[in-house]
Write a structure and sequence with these properties.
Blueprint: H1 2-8, H2 14-17, H3 26-29, H4 32-46, E1 50-54, E2 59-63, H5 68-75, H6 77-92, E3 101-104, E4 110-118, E5 121-133, H7 141-146, H8 152-158, E6 164-165, H9 167-256, H10 265-296, E7 304-306, H11 308-326, E8 329-333, E9 342-344, H12 346-362, E10 369-378, H13 389-392, E11 397-405, H14 439-449, E12 453-458, E13 464-471
Helix pairs in contact: 4-9, 5-6, 9-10, 10-14, 11-12, 12-14
Amino acid sequence: MTGSTAATHPEVDLDALTLNTGAIRLEDLIDRSMLQDVIRSVFSLFGISVRVFAADGTLLSDQAEQQPLCRVLNQLPDGRAACATHVNTIKRLAPEAEQSVEHDCFSGARYHVAPITYDGRVLGRIILGPYLPAELREVPPGLLVAVPTLDPAKARELLPRMPRARSDTVQHVIAHVRSVLDLILFSGHKALLTSQMHLASVRESYRELQDKNARLQDAYDRLQELDRLKSNFIATVSHELRTPLTSIIGYSEMLCEGIAGELTSEQTEFLLTIREKGDQLLALIMSLLDLSKLESGSLTIQRENADVVPILEDVVSSLLPTSRKKSVNVSFVPPSSPVPRIPVDPGKIRQVVLNLAENAVKFTPADGRVTLSVSVASDADPDEDGFGFALLAAAASVVEIRVADTGIGISADQREKVFDAFYQIDSSSTREYGGTGLGLAIVKRLVDAHGGSVRIEDNTPHGTVFVVSLPISLSPAP
C-alpha cells in the first residue's frame, strides 16, 4: 500500500513525511466521520457488515446488521457461548502487513480480516463479515454440532438470508476499502505533520523568545547593578571631595580677609581665583550628590503650599551679578492673573528654576534677554493618550513656569537628550560653553518627583523656552 501511495502522490517526499511515524496511531490520522462514510458506502453496496479497529483493538467504525441466524443463535445458551468464543477468536486475529486472513464460522459463514497499513506499519484491521461463501448451499453439519439445541428446519430457513459473496468479490471489496483508506491516511498524515511542524516552530520561537528575554533580563540586571555602583561611587567620591574643598574655600576666604597678614594685590587676586574656582567645584560636587540622591530615591521632598512668584523673583535677584558680567538682561514678568499656591518643596523648585535660568544666561550672547514668567494653564495634551481620549478626560489645571532666552537654541532632535545626565550638545574638546551636563538632568528628576513635567519649545526667531508644569493639587493615591 505504501507503494501505491507514492505513485498517486509523486510530488510529496514520503521520507520527509514519515519522520515521526513511530508514535502514529490510526485514530490520529483518520477522520472518523469520513471513515464512517466509507464503511457505510461499502455496506450499502454489498450488504456485508464492516468493522474497523485500531491497532489496540479500539472500534473506530462499525456498519453492521445482525443476521437473523445470528439473532436466533444468541437466544440459545449453547449458541450464545459458541458465538462468544468465535467472536473472541476473530478479535485476536492480527494479520501481518500485506496479508489477509479468512476465518470460517461454525455457522458456515465466513469473516475476512485485512490489515490497515501505512508506511509498512500495521495501524489497524478491517473485518468484513459475516457472509456466506457462494459455494455453500446446505446447512453445515458443524452448526448443529456446535449448537445442538438449534432446530435444523430453522437453520435451513435462516441461513440463506445471510448475504453471499464470492472470494474474488470479497478481495475486491477489501482492496477498494484499503485503497480509499490509504488516501485518507496520506492526507491525514500530511495534516498531522503540518500541525506538528507548526507546533515545533511555535515552540522554537517561544524558546528563542525566552532565551532573548533571559539575556535581556541579565543585561538589565547588570546595567542596574552598574548604575547602582556608579551612583554609590559618585556619592562617595563627591562626599570625600567636598570635605577638603570646604577647607580650601574657607582658608582662602580667611586669607583674603587678612587673618594671616596683609596681602599684596597680586596675592589677593590669586586667592580670589582660588576661591572662585573652589566655589565652582563645590557646586559641581553638590550637583553630583543631588543627582546620586535623586537616582537612588533617597532625596526627600518637603511639600508645602508655596507661592512660586517670590521664588522666581529671588532667582532673578541671584542671577543679576552674573548676568551683568555677560551683559544679559534677566527679568521676571509678573502674572496677569493671580497664581494659586501649589504643594511643592520651595527649595527644590528654586533649584529647578535657578538651573534653567543659569543655563539660559550661559547660552545667551551679550545684549540678549532671559525672561521668567508664570501662569495657570490646562494640562490637556491631545497627543498623550491618542485620538479622542483628551476630549473624554478632565483637563487638570497646572502652574506653568517659563524660562525663555534669546540664546543659541536647541535643535528638535536634541530636546530629549539634553535631560540625560552628562549629555553635552557640544562635546568637543574646544567647546565654547562650560558645564557638566548635570543641570538639566537634575531639573528633570526634581520636576518628575513633584509629579510635573518639563518640555522645550522654540523661541522664534532665536533661543529656547523651557516650560515646567506643576500640578495645582496632588493626585489622589490609587
